From TrEMBL:
EC code(s) of this entry: 3.2.1.21
Family statement: Belongs to the glycosyl hydrolase 1 family.
A Gene Ontology molecular function term of the record: beta-glucosidase activity
Swiss-Prot/TrEMBL keywords: Carbohydrate metabolism, Cellulose degradation, Glycosidase, Hydrolase, Polysaccharide degradation
Top EC class, one word: hydrolase
Reaction catalysed by this enzyme: Hydrolysis of terminal, non-reducing beta-D-glucosyl residues with release of beta-D-glucose
Presence of keyword rRNA-binding: no
Protein's organism: Streptomyces cellulosae
Entry protein name: Beta-glucosidase
InterPro entries assigned to the protein according to its UniProt record, in alphabetical order: GH, Glyco_hydro_1, Glyco_hydro_1_beta-glucosidase
Tree of life domain: Bacteria
Length: 459
């Protein structure tokens, strides 16, 4: 317990969750349907036929969960607001019961000495907006800014840190290209349009947050550290294409006010003549941020794969011309992801070298591991592998600080076991075990380790 990495005074150590993954109460108090309600209720989409209808029942049990955060000692709790709980149809009348729920949650957090951090979009798009085109169309970006203004006006006096979007890569490409996330589309041009309109929505939402006078506005990206499978020119070129799809499509417009100069190599004719791009969009997208949220779990080893999809409708999904290959010599989590903590240091240092003073302060807004957790006969959950994972990545984060990267905070993913999207309830990321049949919460060994780490930061 004495080998904890140490962080500077004021460094934020927190925990994170997301609305659809924990709240439940999917049809209560005026909440409208989201694309994840539709997707999870479609047979064959989610493992085990699971849905987020109940999840962790956080909507009713939030005081218990806030008590866990208080006992953990975190300085901040990152949660997301469910858009369809606030504006059930995506536009139009506001649901006061939805606003009241988040107001009560924020007050409970503040009373417990925990600073709230709000994510405005963690993938639960109102189904009514998807029916009108979803993120493929600019209207959704405009409706997102309106919803942002409503939430910020209601909570902005008590919430200091605001995140517009969580992992837009997943929304655009897993949702509209690969089809493994809601809404489950497999499109080429539609996915690129979705990526752009997510960026536009972010830019307009930052405007709305500034108008509401919030203290800090940012965005969270799931940036990946790509490694070539070999030193061959082909594999190194594949890394460039992978980096364009996963990272540069977001970081270049947001941090540098430009589109990636590698986009034509990555997407070919799909990137030409994009009528969804308008004059002035880059200036809107590149509005200054107070912080950049980075979600990081594992590196990706990339090899060249020469396949080219003949159908343009599917090209973004299948025509990236690279393949992910196993990383040798490292442990893998229950998700099959390699554990290589030092790559977090490398990613952050690379970001700093690439963007220099244009890179705002960084918060690691998610980091954690899914493990094969079991409640032991002694009633505890001895998740040693997760403790090792967290120790390694927090040590790597300390190394990034020592290398000159301005990192201000870290949020463990996740406070609770929860609905893990297309994996249903099969994968457990929480530092608190949830028995979904009884909703009993059991802090794992990782919870106690993280509590001790937080306590060790105090003077």
């Amino acid at each position: 317990m004495n080998d904890f990495p140490r962080f500077p005074p004021g460094f934020v150590l927190g925990a994170a969750t997301a609305s659809y993954q924990i709240e439940g109460a999917a049809r209560e108090d005026g909440r409208g349907p989201s694309i994840w309600d539709t997707y999870s209720h479609t047979p064959g989409r989610v493992a085990g036929g699971d849905t987020g209808d109940v999840a962790c029942d956080h909507y009713h049990r939030y005081p218990e969960d806030v008590a866990l955060l208080r006992d953990l000692g975190v300085g901040s709790y990152r949660f997301s607001v469910a858009w369809p709980r606030i504006v059930p149809d995506g536009s139009g009348p506001v649901n006061p019961k939805g606003l009241d729920f988040y107001s009560r949650l924020v007050d409970e957090l503040l009373a417990a000495g925990v600073e709230p951090a709000v994510t405005l979009y963690h993938w639960d798009l109102p189904q009514a907006l998807e029916d009108r085109g979803g993120w493929r169309v600019r209207e959704t970006a405009e409706r997102f800014a309106e919803y942002t203004a409503v939430v910020a006006d209601h909570l902005g006096d008590r919430v200091p840190r605001w995140i517009t979007l969580n992992e837009p890569w997943c929304s655009a490409f897993l949702g509209y290209s690969v089809g493994r996330h809601a809404p489950g589309a497999q499109e080429g041009r539609g996915a690129l349009a979705a990526a752009h309109h997510l960026l536009v929505g972010h830019g307009i939402a930052v405007q709305a947050l500034r108008a509401a006078g919030v203290r800090e506005a940012g965005i969270t990206l799931n940036l990946d550290h790509h490694l070539p499978a070999t030193d061959s020119d082909a594999d190194r070129a594949a890394v460039v294409r992978a980096d364009t799809l996963h990272n540069l499509v977001w970081t270049e417009p947001i941090l540098a006010g430009r589109y990636p100069d590698t986009e034509e190599e990555t997407w070919g004719e799909l990137i030409t003549g994009q009528d969804f791009r308008r004059d002035g969009d880059l200036e809107l997208i590149a509005r200054p941020l107070d912080f950049l949220g980075v979600n990081y779990y594992r590196p990706i080893v990339v090899a060249d794969a020469p396949h080219r999809e003949s159908d343009p409708a599917l090209r973004v999904a299948t025509d990236n011309r690279y393949a992910e290959v196993p990383m040798p010599g490292v442990r893998r989590t229950a998700m099959g992801w390699p554990v290589a903590p030092g790559t977090l240091t490398d990613l952050l240092v690379d970001l700093k070298e690439q963007y220099g003073d244009a890179l705002p302060p960084v918060h690691i807004t998610e980091n954690g591991s899914a493990e094969d957790d079991r409640v032991s006969p002694d009633g505890a959950v001895h998740d040693t592998d997760r403790v090792d994972y967290l120790r390694g990545h927090l040590t790597a984060l300390r190394a990034a600080l020592d290398a000159g990267v301005d990192v201000r905070g870290y949020y463990v993913w996740s406070l609770l076991d929860n609905f893990e999207w297309a994996f249903g309830y099969d994968k457990r990321f929480g530092i608190v075990h949830v028995d979904y049949a009884t909703q009993r919460r059991t802090p794992k060994d990782s919870y106690h380790w993280y509590r001790h780490l937080i306590a060790a930061q105090r003077p």
